[in-house]
Amino acid sequence: MKSITIKGSKRESVGKKSTKALRNAGEVPCVIYGGEEITHFSAPEVSFNKLIYTPDVHTVVVDLGDTKFTAVLQDIQFHPVTDDILHIDFYEFHEGQEITMEIPVHSEGIPKGVKNGGVLRFNLRRMVVRGLAKNLPDFIVADVTPLKIGQKLYVTAVASEDYKIQHPDNTVICQVRTSRNVSLIGVDEDEEDEAEEGEESTAEGETAEEESKE
Length: 214
Prior knowledge:
Strand order of the largest sheet: 1-5-6-7-3-4-2
Structural class: alpha+beta
Number of helices: 4
Number of strands: 14
Strand content: 35-45%
Radius of gyration: 24 Å
CATH architecture of the largest domain: Beta Complex
CATH class of the largest domain: Mainly Beta
Distance between the termini: 59 Å
């Protein structure tokens, strides 16, 4: 996993007045915990652009001059109106220590079901995994090519020795669903059966709903 460096300065005072003064000066108050002691620091707001305003995830090296910390972003607070960054929490970790992170999921390929008129729907865009920082990927690749209409891709399909998936095995990453406006001409027989079953279930549900209204 890639890492970015953020240069900041230790905070001697953490009161409301000093915090407000920092924000007015374009600085973001931050805290690092998880180590032997809690460290308060601040850094220019623009320093966090590559960390926050990106779909990718990174580990962070916080450089405070005489001290450096290896950490991950734990929590961030935004102003409800301006969206300015109000505060950031970091969690320090050391080499050989496992960490938990949300990793983006990137799809690869075009599902068979989509070629036959289905629609690919994502249930899970980011996965929570745990492992050594050096082993965690920048993103997790989900091969959706084999998916036919009605089929789902579960988290177990992207299992790896590099990390432990923190979701139940039956968690769905994505699925190919039937499009109501698509003709099933040219669809494989097994996909047609699956599609028809889905439509029958939908029809039964609509009938039951109409009867309940009556």
